[in-house]
Every structure is written in C-alpha cells, then in structure tokens.
Amino acid sequence: MVDNSKCMDNPGTKDRILGAAERLFAVKGYHNTSLREITSTAMVNLASVNYHFGSKDKLLKSVFERRLIPMNEIRFRLLDEIDQKCKDENRKPDVREILAAFVEPTLRHMEAGEGWMEFSMLVGRALNDPDNVQADPFLELVIPLFVRMFDLLSLALPELPGKILLLKLYFSIGVVQQTISGWKRVDRFDHMPEMEKHYTSDLDTIIDTILDFIEAGTKSHLTS
C-alpha cells in the first residue's frame, strides 16, 4: 500500500506544483486556471496542493515568494551596502548605483534558469489584475523594496519634490518590466525586418542602456 503522505511530503512535489502553477497562471491567467489543471500538469494528486499550500490563493503567493524573496535579498543587500558606504564616506548616494541595485539582479535572474519568462508574464498579469487578487501578494513583496529605493533616491536628489521622484521611480520600474516581458521575444520584429538587424540580446548592453535611460530620466528636473 502506498503511503500518500510520504508522496505529498516529497520535496520534488512542492517544486513541481509551483512550476506548474507558475506556467499556467502566466499563460491562462489565475482565474482561468483550476487546481485540477495544476495537479494534472504537475502529476500530483489534489491533496498535495492542500498539504503544501492550503488554498489556491496561498499557492499564488508561494509562486511569487519563490522568485522574489531570494531576488529581494540581493537587492536589499546592495541597497544597504550603498547606504553604508555613503555614510562612511559622508556623501550622497549615487542615483545610478541605486537604480542598478534593482535593475541588475532583476535582469540577471531572467538569464539564471527555467521559468523566468513565464514569471515575468505572471507579473504583468498581476499588475493589470482589476480585482487585485494577483496584485496584492505581488505588491506585498515588492513595496518594501520600492520604499527603500525611494528613501535612498530622496537622499541622492533632495531638491526633487517627492511626488515627482515617485513618478520617476514608477516610470523606471515600468521600463524594466516592459524590457523583461518583451525584449527577448525576437518574433516581435517579424513585421519590422528593417529593425531586426539592430536587435541585441546581449545582457550587459541591455542593462547599461536601461541604466543610461532611467538615470537620465530620474536626474532630469522639471523647470518652472
């Protein structure tokens, strides 16, 4: 007789469920994906989802946590290092350094392994979710990071009104998200052959260019 509890407690079971949920939520949408579809794709029984996560909502939250918690640890560490270095040297933080602490880990993780493109699609869905079911667990994980960035950018650009700085930060994050969700899809250029020759997938070039772009936008001041 098979002991189902041991099968459900297998470490690989939880990862398979998370991977299947991530793909299906990204492609079909959270509301259009059933737990039965997830368990069928993951090749586990329905009781495994309840055992590991308890509900579909908690499963979604765990999908976000699996990617964002380790990435945020890197981002916060870089921001803390910037903050401490500036205190030690008695100077203002550098805008590009602050932005790079967000941009580089985000884009380099996209190259780090399987599933990141699906995750970026899921983030896009979450940010456009009209009833906040997907947005809330995502924002719970990223808002503390954005507050930390805003605080450091306020020190770097003390003359910039907070409402303008917040918009600039919002626009900067949007540029990164749009790059993640679209730039790696070369097929986007199928109807623009004259542009395809200029396409690059070199990550260092992409990171440097994004930083050039959002640094200039963040530093530019509105004049009355």
Helix content: over 70%
Q: Indicate the mean pLDDT.
A: 87
Beta-strand share of residues:
under 5%
Using only C-alpha atoms, the radius of gyration works out to 20 Å
CATH class of the largest domain: Mainly Alpha
What structural category characterises the helix and strand content? mainly alpha
Offer a concise description of the structure.
The protein has 224 residues and is mostly helical.
What can you see in these coordinates?
The protein is mainly α and about 220 residues long. The protein folds into 2 domains: about 55 residues, Arc Repressor Mutant, subunit A; about 160 residues, Tetracycline Repressor, domain 2, CATH 1.10.357. It has 11 helices and no strands. Helix 2 crosses helix 7. The longest helix is centred in the N-terminal third of the chain and has 34 residues. The N terminus is likely disordered.
Defining key terms:
2 domains; 0% strand; Tetracycline Repressor, domain 2; 224 residues; Arc Repressor Mutant, subunit A; mainly alpha; globular
Q: Would you spell out the secondary-structure blueprint of this structure?
A:
Layout: H1 4-8, H2 11-28, H3 35-42, H4 46-52, H5 56-89, H6 95-110, H7 116-127, H8 135-156, H9 162-182, H10 193-196, H11 203-219
Helix pairs in contact: 2-3, 2-5, 2-7, 5-6, 5-8, 6-8, 6-9, 6-11, 8-9, 9-11
